[in-house]
Amino acid sequence: MTGKQKILLTGASGYVGNQLLAQLEDLGHEINCLTRNPQNLTSVGHNTTVYQGDVTIRSSMWHAFQGVDTAYFLIHMLHEKEDFELKEIEAAENFASLARGAGVKRIIYLGALGKDTDDLSPHLQSRHDVGHALRESGITTIELRASIVLGKGSLSFEMIRDLTERLPFMVTLRWVSTPAQPIGIRDLLTYLIQSLELPVHHHETIEIGASNCMSYGELMREYAKQRGLKRFMIPVPVLSPNLSSHWLSFITHIDPLIGRKLIEGIRNPTVVENKRALQLFNFQPESISEAMAEALAAHPISEKNEGLEHVYAT
């Protein structure tokens, strides 16, 4: 597929989806946005049509698929209190079924890194299961697997920001040493846009990330370095992401329900092991330091001292 397309975008009111919508509009594509809450999309272009629908209810969204060439699946159910994994699979199966019936030619899905052979957290396992459900449609499916996203408004970046800004002294639990390969929001959007015309006619699971890796502790140290902050970390040999999730709501602005599910996944390494993305896409991703600098430049920090003069276990 080349040139202008008719695109279905889900998750347009979310962090990544909102920025992707703006870029797709700038490229001149015709866009159908499917959302449960149209009022959250306050500014859309003249080529964008907003449809109200719920991916867990097939009858509410069939009209948004009509005439669509490519459909983006940028949905998660982390806000659900119970059985979010089952609801995510149900949403993916509904989406795939309607896409197949409407003649959609390509699905682009933003999933999560993590080795299938690992004992993945419920969140990461669900991300992989959703990818499988979408591929079962028989439609060409591009699954981009990413770690945390570095950018203003990203939940993961905001968690790193809040922890580092507010805690001068940290007793760090073992999960802080887990390796990750974050990706800057600018690079992530480039991957999502280029996937529209990627020359593939079958399923592709593509691991994407920055040009280097860091542990979560190193990410906080990098943040502190770029902000000119002195931060002290005392490691202890305890894993306990559950303990971390209990106090997360007291230190960060992240919703406790979502934060718990995210932090449970930190026990799993999320690094790029397959370098195929470097062959398929015509750009080189930036480093973590560069992505962090861009995120900070877009996220001015108040001059007020946000540090809490206490020692907290992370």
Condensed summary:
With 314 residues, the protein is an alpha/beta fold. It is 36% helix and 18% strand. The protein folds into two domains: 6-146, Rossmann fold (3-Layer(aba) Sandwich), CATH 3.40.50.720; 155-178 and 212-268 and 287-313.
What does this structure look like?
The protein is globular. The protein is built from ten helices and 14 strands. The chain starts with 5 loop residues before the first strand and ends with a strand. It has 314 residues and is an alpha/beta fold. The strands form four sheets. The chain has a seven-stranded parallel sheet, sandwiched between helices. A three-stranded parallel sheet has the order 13-8-14, with no helix packed on it. The protein has helices at residues 15-26, 84-102, 122-135, 155-166, 185-194, 216-227, 241-251, 256-264, 277-280, 288-297; strands at residues 6-10, 30-35, 48-52, 70-73, 106-112, 140-146, 149-150, 169-172, 179-180, 183-184, 204-207, 214-215, 232-235, 311-313. It has two domains: 6-146, Rossmann fold; 155-178 and 212-268 and 287-313.
Provide the fold topology.
Elements: E1 6-10, H1 15-26, E2 30-35, E3 48-52, E4 70-73, H2 84-102, E5 106-112, H3 122-135, E6 140-146, E7 149-150, H4 155-166, E8 169-172, E9 179-180, E10 183-184, H5 185-194, E11 204-207, E12 214-215, H6 216-227, E13 232-235, H7 241-251, H8 256-264, H9 277-280, H10 288-297, E14 311-313
Parallel strand pairs: 1-2, 1-4, 2-3, 4-5, 5-6, 6-11, 7-10, 8-13, 8-14
Antiparallel strand pairs: 9-12
